[in-house]
Amino acid sequence: MVQIRAAGVNPIDWKLYSGAFHRVADQNKDSAGVGTDNLPALGLECAGVVTEVGPQADGVQVGDEVIVYPVTAAYAEYVTAPVTSLIPKPATLDWPEAGGLMLTGTTATHALHAAGVGTGDTVLIHGGSGGVGLMAVQLATAQGATVIATATEANHELLRDLGATPVMYGPGLLDRVRAAAPNGVTAALDLVGSDEALDTSLELVADRNRIASITGSERRAAAGIKVLGNGPGQDVGTEVRHAARADLAERAGSGELKVIVDATYSLDDAAKAHEAGIAGHGPGKLVLLP
Ligand SMILES: NC(=O)c1ccc[n+]([C@@H]2O[C@H](COP(=O)([O-])OP(=O)(O)OC[C@H]3O[C@@H](n4cnc5c(N)ncnc54)[C@H](OP(=O)(O)O)[C@@H]3O)[C@@H](O)[C@H]2O)c1
User: Fold this and answer.
1) Does one domain contain both 118 and 158?
2) Is there a domain that residue 47 lies in?
3) Residue with CA at minimum distance from ligand 1 atom 48
4) 272-278 long-range contacts, Cβ below 8 Å, gap at least 24?
5) Residue nearest ligand 1's atom 3 by CA
């Protein structure tokens, strides 16, 4: 059992009840249009202090500070999880950063791996200022890639500080990326899900195996790019994501990898965190502090 000190908020949390993943019948919606049947227990990542251990929980002790991922139902004060989901929390990492590191960090690692990004690449990252995007920008830069990242103007300075060349998304994106990458783009990550992100990537990247999307759509499946996630035919990336956790914790603990926390909320204000997340334009993570 872990007493939760911080739980990360992610877009999947509202997608799970909004009908984004499955149609919700009108009679099963409340006055705000939110599905009321089979509501999921929210919260897919957190960090906290171990308060109880089971008989087979080798290597874990009461009082250990841990990051818990994967986990479910982490919008809570306490959560149970298998030992395999516990990663030691670096003492140098604050609770909000620890609680918001893993879902985006492992997803970014998987996307960069799937697109084969490394030294000498120029990678276009759509959604560079989002939770996953900020991780991908930093990890790609650390791997020796040149990064072009799309974001709204207000988030450009942060992206520059992290080593990326920011470009505004919207009409004219293709020309702006071409100007920012005169030698061409060798790989792309679609962390947004828009037609623009897909079309720009297909236009600029010659090898479709080097375009990875973490948002599914029929067009993405038909385009023959790498589609990552839990949907039918998608690459779940369990091994890559699982293996990345210790390295992500170490990098975040050393300060090499920054977890940008946009705002924190009490557990009672989880709905406000969702409203802020849906409104967008952070940059970075929203985190609940029980
Ligand atoms: N498949 C998987 O395993 C997986 C895992 C994690 C997340 N996801 C999905 O990936 C997406 C991103 O997740 P996240 O946690 O990074 O979300 P987030 O923190 O909310 O970030 C959203 C990003 O989208 C950008 N954006 C918003 N509108 C845009 C537009 N019209 N064109 C281009 N960019 C736009 C925002 O940029 P500005 O704020 O600068 O405008 C921001 O960078 C979500 O759909 C999420 O559900 C999938």
Assistant:
1) yes
2) yes
3) 214
4) 273/9, 274/9, 274/13, 274/14, 277/9, 277/11, 277/13, 277/14, 278/14
5) 229
